[in-house]
């Protein structure tokens, strides 16, 4: 009985201790969750800028006192929640420790508030500048600027000169017109943007000559700021890079050689910033002309001589039936020789340039074989002789009865065809 009572007493004591410990832990947790804590703030902020306080139960903060005794009531906070308070720093505030007023007592920051003077921009160039020019930005606390960003995200961190009231910076090659963004030297930089745009000059085309040009020849482009041009784009997606401009290029004049595949179209000037400036007028490419074709009629597999102008531009010759001829080497601007495909048909011939310019000739006739005489009778497996003209064009001889004669090539000429008649033939056709 005594043993049972001791065991019962021990269990009761253990239960009481467990309850006590649980209540103590719960009380500690509740006490901690109710505690007003400041985890971090600022500490650097622009005068007039937004100051942040991060912590726990900050919704219980009743006021914040900035140095020197600048008191801001909770009702004047910009935002207030359990974890965040934001407020705008009054102009009368100075650097020093900050005090948070709470029902549980004051919380004083361990780090001093650092107030940065506001950076202002008062003047930038009002006339267009060129890439490579040095511009001056005027304002207050320009000495705090660590980076200038131009339109197209062109960043400059090395300055030509810098003082409290002015900053001189070189305009990047790829910059284009737009507002400037100035970043200060803070770890998380503050951004200051210009109210107006910095205008960056662009090239212009005032004229070009000749307006009709032969591929491979040069054109002269005149205008302004042509030294900013990195690429000249021509019709047919033909690009001429600055390295390929002809010698003597200036800001007012450049000369280029027109690529062979150039098509009709406007001239486009491209800058390093990839801005494109188009000419008003279109460049027209020269088209070849056909004056004559000999011989005509012509044998398939033979050759024709074509006369005309600008024939050195011709890159393909297409006969009727969509059959391509072969341009023989040694041609000139006024004369070319073309091999006629064996399967070409009578009709017009199309002459085309690499720029997809084309001209079509009058009809060219393909000569046909002509039979003058043939044997009136023949035995099977014996040869017959056919006479005529252009018989060298004959590829097959069809005989009645569904047979094909065998042409004896060694014995055949343009005027004579020797054919072996096979068994099964009834009459010649």
Provide keyphrases for this structure.
5 domains, 45% strand, Coagulation Factor XIII, Chain A, domain 1, five-stranded mixed beta sheet, disordered N terminus, five-stranded antiparallel beta sheet, mainly beta, Immunoglobulin-like
Walk me through this protein's architecture.
The structure is a single chain. By secondary structure, the protein is mainly beta. It has one helix and 39 strands. The strands form ten sheets. It has a five-stranded mixed β-sheet with strand order 20-26-25-22-23, with no helix packed on it. Residues 1-26 have low confidence and may be disordered.
Give the structure's gist in a few sentences.
The chain has one helix at residues 2-33; strands at residues 37-41, 44-46, 50-56, 63-66, 70-73, 79-80, 84-88, 99-101, 107-108, 114-116, 120-123, 134-140, 145-151, 154-156, 161-162, 166-170, 176-184, 191-193, 204-209, 212-213, 218-224, 229-235, 238-241, 253-257, 263-271, 276-285, 289-294, 303-309, 314-320, 323-324, 326-327, 335-339, 345-353, 358-360, 370-374, 383-389, 397-399, 403-407, 416-420. The chain is mostly beta strands and 429 residues long. A hairpin with an 8-residue loop joins β35 and β36 (383-389).
């Amino acid at each position: 009985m005594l043993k049972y009572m001791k065991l019962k007493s021990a269990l009761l004591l253990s239960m009481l201790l467990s309850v006590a410990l649980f209540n103590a832990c719960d009380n500690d947790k509740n006490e901690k969750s109710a505690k007003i804590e400041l985890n971090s703030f600022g500490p650097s902020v622009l005068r007039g800028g937004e100051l942040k306080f991060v912590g726990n139960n900050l919704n219980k903060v009743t006021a914040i006192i900035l140095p020197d005794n600048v008191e801001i009531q909770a009702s004047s906070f910009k935002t207030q929640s359990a974890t965040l308070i934001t407020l705008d720093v009054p102009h009368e505030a100075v650097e020093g420790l900050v005090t948070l007023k709470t029902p549980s007592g004051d919380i004083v920051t361990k780090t001093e508030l650092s107030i940065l003077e506001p950076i202002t921009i008062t003047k930038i160039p009002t006339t267009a500048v060129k890439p490579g020019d040095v511009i001056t930005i005027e304002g207050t606390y320009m000495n705090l600027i660590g980076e200038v960003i131009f339109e197209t995200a062109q960043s400059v961190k090395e300055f030509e000169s810098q003082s409290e009231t002015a900053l001189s910076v070189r305009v990047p090659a790829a910059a284009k017109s737009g507002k400037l963004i100035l970043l200060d030297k803070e770890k998380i930089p503050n951004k200051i943007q210009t109210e107006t745009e910095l205008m960056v000059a662009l090239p212009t085309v005032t004229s070009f000559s000749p307006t009709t040009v032969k591929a491979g020849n040069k054109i002269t482009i005149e205008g302004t700021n042509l030294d900013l041009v990195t690429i000249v784009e021509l019709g047919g997606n033909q690009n001429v890079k600055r390295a390929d401009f002809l010698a003597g290029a200036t800001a007012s004049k450049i000369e280029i050689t027109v690529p062979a595949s150039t098509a009709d179209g406007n001239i486009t000037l491209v800058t390093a910033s990839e801005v494109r400036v188009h000419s008003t007028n279109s460049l027209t490419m020269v088209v070849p002309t056909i004056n004559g074709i000999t011989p005509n009629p012509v044998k398939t597999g033979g050759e024709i001589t074509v006369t005309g102008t600008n024939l050195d531009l011709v890159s393909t010759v297409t006969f009727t039936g969509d059959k391509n001829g072969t341009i023989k080497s040694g041609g000139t601007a006024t004369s070319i020789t073309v091999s006629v495909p064996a399967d070409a048909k009578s009709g017009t011939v199309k002459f085309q340039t690499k720029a997809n310019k084309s001209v079509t000739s009058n009809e060219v006739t393909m000569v046909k074989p002509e039979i003058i005489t043939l044997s009136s009778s023949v035995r099977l497996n014996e040869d017959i002789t056919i006479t005529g003209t252009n018989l060298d064009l004959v590829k097959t001889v069809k005989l009645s009865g569904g047979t094909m004669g065998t042409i004896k090539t060694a014995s055949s000429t343009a005027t004579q065809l020797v054919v072996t008649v096979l068994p099964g033939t009834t009459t010649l056709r």
